[in-house]
Write a structure and sequence with these properties.
mainly alpha; Arc Repressor Mutant; 55% helix
């Protein structure tokens, strides 16, 4: 049984979502329903089940341990300042 739901979203997001839905030959309602259904199904799954990491993603690991207090934004800003001197 279908029911009506009213939500408020950013106009830009709505427009892009409509374009995406149209390009995939779905209605925006069905697209949102599919997304919400995937959340509900995922949430109801066994929480003890470990997330599987693909071999490709594992291969991207560098093995470098970063300090927990690393301020990457400041470091990147410093790098850009130095680069463009």
């Amino acid at each position: 049984m279908d029911a009506k739901l009213t939500i408020k979203l950013d106009k830009y997001v709505i427009d892009k979502a409509k374009d995406y839905a149209s390009s995939h030959k779905k209605s925006l309602s069905r697209l949102i329903e599919s997304y919400l259904k995937s959340l509900v199904i995922h949430d109801n799954s066994d929480d003890s089940e470990e997330i599987k990491i693909s071999p490709f993603v594992k291969s991207m690991s560098t093995g470098v341990n970063l300090p927990s207090d690393l301020d990457y934004k400041k470091d990147y800003t410093d790098y850009l300042i130095e680069k463009h001197r």
